[in-house]
Amino acid sequence: MLGSPAAANAGIRHRTICIVTCEENMMEMSASAPLRGNRAYISLGSNLGDSLQTLRRAAAALGGLGTVVAASPIYETDPVGLREQPAFLNAVVELDTTLEPLPLLDALLAIEAEGGRERGIRFGPRTLDLDLIWYDGRQLDSDRLTLPHPRAHEREFVLRPLADVAPAIDLQGETVAALLERLPPQGVRATGTSLM
Ligand code: ADP
Ligand code: MG
């Protein structure tokens, strides 16, 4: 999505400098280095502690795993599943990375641990949750990792920020934009706050 036509023609994609596209508040990041890795989309969530600071620190840490190509704005979302818990803040980061899916998952779990994540009840409150939603269009079903993420297509808190950065990617045979359009509202609100 980024780069000058000349660069695109040369097969080289560059990030552009922190452009905040006004309405969506979606940020496209900058760099001079060409992007050479695989494209990955990572969902970030937090509903314990200082969630804004936690998400921003996590986004900065994701930059250590490759190049952050784009970041959605932050949304406030009603909890899904276990409803008696605080609202979440959620966002999505687009990452260009040379890490393969399993090493990338390990790196995400390490960032979660740094963010103070304690694993309590499933779907319960958490200081930081990082999910690998989509990786280079690959499909995988192993003990440790399912790609694309098996529940992303039915969760507005994933689809809405993902649609800001990648509306055309495929989840379960449909585009993110199409899935979002027919999903009943689940309580996802724009905050007008940027992630990075
Ligand atoms: P959830 O995010 O579904 O609430 P957790 O964050 O506790 O649950 O994740 C539990 C495990 O899910 C992780 O340790 C990881 O091995 C596994 N997992 C499987 N597929 C994925 C994926 N696409 N992204 C992140 N974790 C995944
Ligand atoms: Mg998770």
Characteristic terms for this protein:
binds adenosine-5'-diphosphate, 12 strands, 24% helix, Alpha-Beta Plaits, binds magnesium ion, 29% strand, 196 residues, alpha+beta, disordered N terminus, two-stranded antiparallel ribbon, 5 helices
Structural class: alpha+beta
Major sheet: size, sense and barrel closure?
Answer: 8 strands, antiparallel
Total helix count?
A: 5
Tell me what the CATH architecture of the largest domain is. 2-Layer Sandwich
CATH topology value of the largest domain: Alpha-Beta Plaits
Radius of gyration: 16 Å
Q: What bound compounds does this protein have? A: adenosine-5'-diphosphate, magnesium ion
Detail the topology: elements first, then pairings.
Elements: H1 5-9, E1 19-21, E2 26-28, E3 38-46, H2 51-62, E4 67-71, E5 73-77, E6 88-97, H3 101-114, E7 129-135, E8 140-141, E9 146-147, H4 156-165, E10 170-171, E11 174-175, H5 176-182, E12 188-194
Antiparallel strand pairs: 1-2, 2-4, 3-6, 3-7, 4-6, 5-6, 5-12, 8-9, 10-11
Helix pairs in contact: 4-5
The structure holds adenosine-5'-diphosphate and magnesium ion (MG).
